[in-house]
Write a structure and sequence with these properties.
Strand content: under 5%
Number of domains: 1
Largest sheet: none
Radius of gyration: 31 Å
Distance between the termini: 101 Å
Mean pLDDT: 79
């Protein structure tokens, strides 16, 4: 019997919540829950305000992620990107011909990390350095250049994850506010409190996903490009060093 009473009580509570939602649906629509006006300029501003402060925190995460993405896009795809095959072929012809000046001048055409690392090895050869000294010169240059390629990209994943967590937090806070609307509150104020809670939950969650998904996709894109550049640097550096060693008779040691 006690179980049946609890079951009936639970049904009454659920029915009460459903009645409140049904009775105040018009109020929820007027406050911006309808999707028809959500994507207008006024609707977006209203959505931000209703989801505050979480939506504004998520927006800050999105702005930082966008700035980092654009900066990394410029560095990785324009400044640091080199045609590996063409570069290696030109350097190889110059080394085989014993013309190190031509190889160094070709490296000076761009300030890409690959150019700078290979140029450091070529300058060590011109200074009549030993094989170990050439390798050391290239390693030292790599220690300076590799961080330029890798820096700041992990922040995209960080901002994406933080935006997701802020959206989840807004959902929890919004649900807490919504449940408070059905207990110990004046019935006239329940509609407003319930609408505010649902708005915080839905708008914060949506904003978090809108920021997180592109940020994580951008992180994956830039990480793949970063790894390709690092692989090219390693391949070209080793190939250049081996080529110098094979043609050592053209570059005497001091």
């Amino acid at each position: 019997m006690a179980f049946l009473r609890q079951l009936r009580k639970g049904r009454c509570l659920n029915g009460g919540i459903a009645n409140i939602m049904e009775e105040n649906s018009a109020d929820l629509i007027q406050q911006g829950i309808d999707t028809g006006s959500m994507f207008s300029a006024d609707g977006l501003i209203q959505a931000f305000n209703q989801g505050a402060p979480f939506t504004w925190l998520i927006l800050v995460m999105g702005v930082f992620a966008l700035v980092i993405f654009l900066e990394r896009l410029y560095v990785l795809y324009l400044k640091a990107s080199v045609n590996k095959s063409g570069f290696l072929a030109h350097v190889q012809r110059a080394i085989v011909a014993g013309d190190l000046n031509s190889a160094v001048n070709y490296c000076n055409d761009r300030s890409a990390p690959l150019n700078n690392i290979v140029k450091a090895g070529l300058i060590a050869v011109m200074n009549k350095g030993k094989d170990e000294e050439i390798q050391t010169a290239m390693d030292v240059s790599a220690l300076r250049e590799v961080p330029v390629i890798e820096r700041r990209t992990p922040f995209l994943a960080l901002f994406g994850n933080v935006a997701t967590l802020l959206g989840l937090l807004s959902t929890i806070v919004g649900l807490i506010v919504s449940f408070k609307a059905v207990a110990g509150v004046d019935p006239a104020a329940k509609a407003s409190i319930l609408a505010d809670g649902v708005a915080i939950a839905m708008h914060g969650t949506a904003m978090g996903l809108i920021v997180a998904i592109p940020a994580l996709l951008a992180y994956a894109l830039l990480s793949a490009k970063t790894q390709k550049i690092l692989d090219d640097i390693h391949e070209v550096s080793v190939a250049t060093l081996n080529l110098i060693i094979q043609n050592r008779e053209k570059f005497p040691i001091k």
